[in-house]
Amino acid sequence: MRFFSICRCGDKYHYIFCLFFLYFSINLLKESANAESPEQLPIIEKTLLGGISIAGKGELPFVPKGSAIAGSVGFIVRRIKLEKQGVQNFGDNSECLNTSVAAALGGNVCQYVWVESTAAGGQNWAQSLGLTLDPDFGHYTGVVSELDINNLARDRGEFGIDGNNVGILLNGLKYMNTAGISIQTGNMINGVTGTNGRLPIWFHGIHIGTNATLNDDFESQSNSAYGILMHGAHGFAIHLADDNSTQGAIALGNLGPSQGIVGRNRDKYYPMLYMNTDGYIHIGNVAQKMIVSDGNMVPESDNSYSLGAYEKKWSNIFVHYINNVPVINPGKPIVGGNCNPGAQKFDKTKFYMCLMDSRWHTMATASD
Known about the structure:
It is a single chain. This protein is mainly beta. It has one helix and 17 strands. The chain has a five-stranded antiparallel β-sheet with strand order 7-8-9-10-11, with no helix packed on it. The chain has a four-stranded mixed β-sheet with strand order 14-15-16-17, with no helix packed on it. A two-stranded antiparallel ribbon has the order 1-2. A hairpin with an 8-residue loop joins strand 3 (60-62) and strand 4 (71-73).
């Protein structure tokens, strides 16, 4: 076992500090034994007035409880038991009181973790948090990390207007990174499902609770190619069936196809449905558009489009008028009976029309 190097206490200004150092070293040894720590103790590089810098070689085999991946440990393992009943126990606690004004860029930092990956190093995690729920865990909630902002000052609104209060800030520097937040599962390792593992492992990817946000659940100002990009075999890429919106499930802008719904065909995008500044709903691409207004569906320009085609005919059309003339319907009216002028009917041998006297008349009879 490698012990600490004790500082010299010949200088009277360091006498109190040396006593503290000896007390710290003895208790550190006791804590190492009680906490089932590794045999090798860390090395104290140097002592500072107000702090101690400690470095470990990381040579001891170590398997963290929250991971099946073995490794080595560079510092003493400290195990804390929370045993007092009826209260909220805190295993590791630090409090920071900010009483100074920081520089214009950034702010005061209460906890700082710095990790550097050298060219000779491998993959790196700056911080890893784990939570294990035993098989007989029957309580309500298990949370790995909780972030609370106790805002006693005033409400904050849009970014940059009146200062910002942010729960999590991901600030990328220098080159592009793969993802700000990536939700994965540890049950899949090298393509094989882990022991007692099941997929998927998350019921909700991101869950926003009731009355949690005021203006929008997601806001994108990034000018990216896609605001939301969906991959995978979803049952529904976007599900709005249970949405209780008071004005609408989807709101489109009125600046043309760029704020509407488009379809992709052969690496090109064509407008399908959009609003324009004319106040109408436009359906179709640039060459063939239809306008829907107050239940009426009309082409964008007069005498330019057909309903069906010679080789693609509609099987039936059910209408009352064609060019303001009533269509001919099958039937055998009572000649001389009341009717609406302009109505027309026919049976197997005769053609009938309702004239201006509001009476049915026989207009033609088959000769054979």
